[in-house]
C-alpha cells in the first residue's frame, strides 16, 4: 500500500511537471511541445530555455525545502519547526537583499554564496539562543518567529532606504522562478546530490531520537551529534533552495506533515517523500502562478503562502496544549 502511494505521488509530480510545459502566456499543444523538445524550432526559447529549466528547478527547490523541513521537525521533535520559522529563509533573504540593493546585477555565484551565508548566520543565532535557555519546542518556535520578524524588519528597512534599487530584490524576495534558467541548475542539483545521501544516512538515527534521547543514547545513536549534523544539513538545503528562487514560504512546513500523514514516521520513507511533496507543491504553485491570468505572472511564493498560512493556524490550534 505504501509503495502504491509513493508511486502515485511520484506519478502525480511527473504529470504536473510535464503539464507545466503547456501552460503560460503562450498555451501550447502537446504535439508542438514534443516536436520542440526533440527538434527545436520557433518555440525553442519558450520550451527549452524557459519552461523546461523552470520545472526542473521547481522540482529541485521543492525537494530541498521539503527535506529541510523534515530534518528540522525530526531532530527537534517539533511539528511547528520549518526553515521559515527557524529564520533560515529570512536570513537568506536579508543577505541577498543587502547584496542586490548594492549590486543589482550581482553574478549568480556571488548571490548564492552571500544568500547561503545569511541563512547559516541566522540559524546559528537562533540555535545559540535556544541552547542557552534550553527552551521547550513551543518556545523554540517562538524564538524562530521572533528572529525571523526582526530580520524581516531589516529587509523592509533596506527596501525603504533604497527605493530605486529594489526591483531585482523584490522579484527575488517574493519567491519566483521567473527569469531562472539553466545557469541555476548546477547549484541546486549538485547540492541535492551531495546533501540528500547525507540526510538519508541519518534516517535511522532520527527514528531513534523520536523515542527520546535516553533511548537513542542507549543504542548508540549519539543524539547531540545527530542533532548537529541534521541541523547543518537542513540549513544548507534550505539556504541553497532559497538562494535559487527566493523565499517560497511554508513548503518546508507543509511537506513533512503531508508526508507523515501518508507514510508514517519512518524517516527512510519520510525524508524522500517530503522532498517529492515539496517538489509537487512548488511545481504546482509555479504553474498556477503563470497560468491563472497570463501574461501576468504571480510569484509562486504568494500561492504557497495562501495555502500554508491557514494550515499553520490549524497546526497551532491542534497543538495548543503541546509544550
Describe the structure.
The protein has 323 residues and is mainly α. It has a domain at 81-247: ABC transporter involved in vitamin B12 uptake, BtuC. Helix content is 76%, strand content 0%. It has 14 helices and no strands. Helix 4 (88-102) packs parallel to helix 6 (137-161) and helix 5 packs antiparallel against helix 11. The longest helix has 33 residues, at 44-76. It is globular and about 65 Å long. The model has no long low-confidence stretch (mean pLDDT 83). One of its GO terms (biological process) is siderophore-iron import into cell. Belongs to the binding-protein-dependent transport system permease family. FecCD subfamily. It is found in: Cell membrane. Keywords: Cell membrane, Membrane, Transmembrane, Transmembrane helix, Transport. It is a multi-pass membrane protein.
Radius of gyration: 20 Å
Class from helix and strand fractions: mainly alpha
Helix content: over 70%
What's the architecture of the domain at 81-247 in CATH terms?
A: Orthogonal Bundle
Strand content: under 5%
Q: N-to-C SSE series?
A: HHHHHHHHHHHHHH
Low confidence ranges: none
CATH class of the domain at 81-247: Mainly Alpha
Shape: globular
Count of separate DSSP helical elements: 14
Total number of beta strands: 0
CATH superfamily of the domain at 81-247: ABC transporter involved in vitamin B12 uptake, BtuC
- Terminal residue distance: 34 Å
Average pLDDT score:
83
Main sheet: strands, sense, barrel = none
In CATH, the topology of the domain at 81-247 is named: ABC transporter involved in vitamin B12 uptake, BtuC
Subcellular location: Cell membrane
Protein name: Iron-dicitrate transporter subunit FecD
Pfam family, one: FecCD
Transmembrane segments: 54-73, 85-104, 110-133, 140-162, 182-204, 228-254, 269-289, 296-316
Amino acid at each position: 500500500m505504501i509503495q502504491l502511494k509513493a508511486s502515485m505521488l511520484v506519478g502525480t509530480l511527473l504529470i504536473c511537471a510535464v503539464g507545466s510545459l503547456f501552460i503560460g502566456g503562450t498555451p501550447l499543444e502537446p504535439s508542438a511541445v514534443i516536436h520542440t523538445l526533440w527538434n527545436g524550432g520557433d518555440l525553442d526559447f519558450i520550451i527549452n530555455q524557459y519552461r523546461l529549466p523552470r520545472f526542473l528547478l521547481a522540482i529541485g527547490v521543492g525537494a530541498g525545502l521539503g527535506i529541510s523541513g523534515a530534518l528540522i521537525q525530526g531532530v527537534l521533535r517539533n511539528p511547528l519547526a520549518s526553515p521559515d520559522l527557524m529564520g533560515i529563509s529570512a536570513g537568506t533573504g536579508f543577505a541577498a537583499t543587502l547584496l542586490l540593493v548594492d549590486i543589482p546585477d550581482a553574478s549568480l555565484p556571488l548571490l548564492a554564496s552571500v544568500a547561503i551565508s545569511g541563512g547559516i548566520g541566522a540559524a546559528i543565532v537562533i540555535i545559540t539562543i535556544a541552547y542557552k535557555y534550553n527552551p521547550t519546542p513551543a518556545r523554540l518556535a517562538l524564538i524562530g518567529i521572533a528572529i525571523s520578524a526582526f530580520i524581516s524588519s531589516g529587509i523592509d528597512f533596506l527596501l525603504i532606504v533604497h527605493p530605486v534599487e529594489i526591483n531585482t530584490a523584490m522579484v527575488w524576495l517574493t519567491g519566483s522562478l521567473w527569469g531562472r534558467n539553466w545557469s541555476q541548475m548546477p547549484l541546486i542539483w549538485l547540492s541535492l546530490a551531495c546533501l540528500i545521501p547525507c540526510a538519508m544516512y541519518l534516517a535511522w538515527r532520527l527514528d531513534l531520537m523520536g523515542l527520546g534521547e535516553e533511548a537513542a543514547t542507549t543504542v548508540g545513536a549519539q543524539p547531540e551529534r545527530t542533532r548537529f549534523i541534521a541541523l547543518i544539513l537542513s540549513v544548507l538545503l534550505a539556504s541553497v533552495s532559497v538562494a535559487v528562487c527566493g523565499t517560497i514560504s511554508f513548503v518546508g512546513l507543509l511537506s513533512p506533515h503531508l508526508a507523515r500523514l501518508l507514510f508514517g514516521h519512518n524517516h527512510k520513507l519520510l525524508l524522500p517523500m517530503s522532498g517529492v511533496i515539496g517538489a509537487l507543491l512548488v511545481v504546482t504553485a509555479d504553474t498556477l502562478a503563470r497560468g491563472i491570468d497570463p501574461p501576468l505572472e504571480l510569484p509562486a511564493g504568494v500561492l504557497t503562502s495562501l495555502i500554508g498560512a491557514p494550515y499553520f493556524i490549524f497546526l497551532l490550534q491542534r497543538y495548543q496544549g503541546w509544550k
